Amino acid sequence: MNEIAFTPQVLNLLxxxxxxxxxxxxxxxxxxxxxxxNSLPDNFNILYSVxxxxxxxxxxxxxxxxxxxxxxxxxxxxxxxxxxxxxxxxSVTGPAKSKHELDEYLKHEVHQINVENLEELDYxxxxxxxxxxxxxxxxxxxxxxxxxxxxEDTYEILKNHHKEIxxxxxxxxxQILDEKLIKEHFxxxxxxxxxxxxxxxxxxxxxxxxxxxxIPYFEGExxxxxxxxxxxxxxxxxxxxxxxxxxxxxxxxxxxxxxxxKYFCKVLSIKKIKDRQIYITNGGIHHAMxxxxxxxxxxxxxxxxxxxxxxxxxxxxATIIGKTCFSEDILARDAKLPKLEKNDWIAFHNMGxxxxxxxxxxxxxxxxxxxxxxxxx
Length: 377
Ligand SMILES: Cc1ncc(COP(=O)(O)O)c(C=O)c1O
Description:
By secondary structure, this protein is of the alpha/beta class. It folds into 2 domains: 8-23 and 258-376, Lyase, Ornithine Decarboxylase, Chain A, domain 1; 27-257, Alpha-Beta Barrel (TIM Barrel), CATH 3.20.20.10. It is 28% helix and 24% strand. It has helices spanning 8-16, 26-39, 56-64, 74-82, 99-107, 118-127, 151-161, 179-194, 198-201, 226-230, 233-237, 254-257, and strands at residues 21-24, 44-49, 68-71, 90-92, 112-115, 133-137, 165-169, 206-211, 247-252, 261-273, 276-281, 304-306, 315-321, 330-338, 345-348, 370-373. The strands form 2 sheets. Strands 1, 10, 11, 12, 13, 14, 15 and 16 form an 8-stranded mixed β-sheet that branches. The protein has an 8-stranded parallel barrel with strand order 2-3-4-5-6-7-8-9, surrounded by 6 helices. It starts with 7 loop residues before the first helix and ends with a strand. Residues 49, 52, 70, 93, 171, 174-175, 212-213, 251-255, 353 line the site of pyridoxal-5'-phosphate. Pyridoxal-5'-phosphate (PLP) binds next to strand 9 and helix 12.
């Protein structure tokens, strides 16, 4: 990993800290947003998926870039409102929304609710406020995931309610690094929409394509080529007869904020078990579950660097573990790294998304974690 984590500024911060933490570079968030925006054809809106990192400052940074916001809960709604995000910029997605939650979304007149089951649809149809638009979340069934309506149910719903439906939501997958797969998804979305009678879709307002834009986490992975992702996009949809130009939505968390963050933890102790060298750190899966690779069958090590990278010429094969009592609290397995000492720091890269928000922070009851911003150092 050639990215420099231990700059003089950061080393200065490390001297003052004793706990693990996240460090976010706000500038990189703006850069990611701009690079995505500049790669998109006209008529696109970018929605930031707050679940990726619900930090207020990140929300404000993306608000300055004129992002819209994708939320899943009332607390994410409050967070957006507290940070002066207008409800007209908010879209709600999630497989199960209670009546109370729907009432709140409708009361605030959020821009759109992406409904995922018949109960939600009936309730929103009966209680809809003037401004909120109803979108149907569709399951195009590439995977066996349980989100959205089946295509069969979608035909049935649109047959009866097409006048009240303003668009479709077609998110299906995260962390895609293969441009071809994303393009294939866009084409499939267009094919599905073309299969719908013209009078059901003519009045549509927007199409949410999801995206799943990924970022490199592991050795050998490369950045997505956004130009290639959106090349030819207009051709897929050009022969659909909408009555007025529709807008398209891209929903992304990881691509916008993932590369802005690093997770830092430091070595508390070093031991050997049989011939395995083990570094015990003050971090762990309670603050960075993503490093425990919960979805991976074959575990890989995320890219990281250490405060000894530049100075040390001797290497170890070692395992880095966290401080929780979970046996899978392993931050890196049998990794090649410089010989570390107590109080040396390790920085895991591209950890700006699904860090704290995707971690069991209450597990074992350790101190709450802090997030710092590079711009404040
Ligand atoms: C519906 C929906 N939208 C957006 C996202 C954000 O995904 P990512 O952060 O990988 O862009 C997810 C992730 O799970 C999702 O389920």
